[in-house]
Write a structure and sequence with these properties.
It is a single chain. It is built from 13 helices and ten strands. The protein is of the alpha/beta class. The longest helix has 22 residues. The mean pLDDT is 90. The structure holds ligand C2E and calcium ion (CA) (3 copies).
């Protein structure tokens, strides 16, 4: 048995072993991250391209690791999903987002919205979190419209009855739904129709190549026209230059998000940005 074990191990190259051990370590650290208050919720403005004003933000998770510094979600969300920690983390994200949007609605802008990312794994949980969330919003005195849920095309593609039910429950409560990373997956008009999506987020891979005359200009225009025909608003992701913003605005795009306007900001810094906007 000992020999068999050793043989098994020899299938792994040293590099793979190192990566696997690093993942295990990080997953272990992540287990303590919530209790040790190492998670931070950042906010990135979503700018109304016609007015230049901010009435929405996307909540983006960060992990302030005690020794490794800031760890981005691309690195730890997959670990959270694989380990099941994503459910507790998602709950924390929701609580934080709800608290901040409550402040911003009360103090600054009664229609302010915060968008929260939901990975497909989060929807698979038993016990309909949508109902719990809606109850929590109610106790905070918030309407469903304070929240936007960002989902990806993959979720709609193999939507189980449970997923469909939660999406409908959100919708009935006025929570809006945004389809994230649009254009990178199996985009299908029938899904968009069936699930009554409120926003399409054009993936940053299309926005990156926007210059006058580029093929992606035609692509973005087509997405925007199609979305508007269906009563869906469009948010462009990854807007980094004024030229991109101008092309998008000329194409009728409703909102832009990206480093041109602001990077994701710590909640207090985002709060200060909104206060400055009010006083402008
Ligand atoms: P996403 O939802 O597509 O988020 C957009 C990503 O683009 C963010 O990366 C954001 O920081 C980045 N970004 C924004 N503006 C620009 C720009 O102008 N240029 C470039 N190059 N990038 C820009 P981030 O924060 O690292 O998040 C990565 C992904 O992690 C997100 O992609 C989302 O899928 C996931 N994620 C983040 N927070 C959460 C969360 O609370 N829950 C779940 N389930 N997933 C999350
Ligand atoms: Ca997103
Ligand atoms: Ca995205
Ligand atoms: Ca709708």
């Amino acid at each position: 048995a000992k020999d068999a074990g050793r043989n098994c191990f020899s299938f792994f190259t040293p590099a793979l072993q190192v990566a696997a051990v690093a993942r295990m370590r990080l997953t272990n650290d992540l287990r303590g991250a919530l209790a040790n208050e190492e998670l931070r919720l950042y906010f990135q403005p979503v700018v109304d391209l016609a007015s230049g004003r901010i009435h929405k933000a996307e909540a983006l998770l960060r992990w302030e690791h005690p020794t490794r510094g800031m760890v981005g979600p691309a690195e730890f969300i997959p670990l959270a999903e694989a380990s099941g920690l994503i459910h507790d983390i998602g709950e924390w994200v929701f609580q934080q987002a709800a608290q901040w949007v409550k402040r911003w609605r009360q103090e600054l802008d009664p229609y302010f919205q915060v968008a929260v990312n939901q990975s497909p794994v989060e929807f698979q949980r038993q016990g309909r979190r949508s109902a719990q969330w809606l109850a929590h919003l109610k106790t905070l005195g918030l309407s469903g419209g304070a929240l936007v849920v960002e989902i990806t095309e993959g979720l709609l593609l193999d939507a189980s009855p449970g997923v469909t039910e939660q999406l409908l429950e959100f919708r009935d409560a006025g929570v809006e739904v945004a389809l994230d990373d649009f254009g990178t997956g199996y985009s299908s008009l029938s899904y968009i129709q069936k699930f009554d999506i409120d926003y399409l987020k054009i993936d940053q891979s299309f926005v990156r190549n926007l210059k006058p005359g580029a093929r992606d200009v035609a692509l973005c225009k087509a997405i925007i026209v199609m979305a508007h025909e269906l009563g869906i608003k469009v948010i462009a992701e990854g807007v980094e230059t004024e030229a991109q913003r101008d092309l998008l605005a000329a194409a009728g795009c409703d909102y832009g998000q990206g480093y041109l306007f602001a990077k994701p900001l710590a909640a207090e810094a985002f709060d200060a940005l909104l206060v400055r906007q009010r006083d402008d």
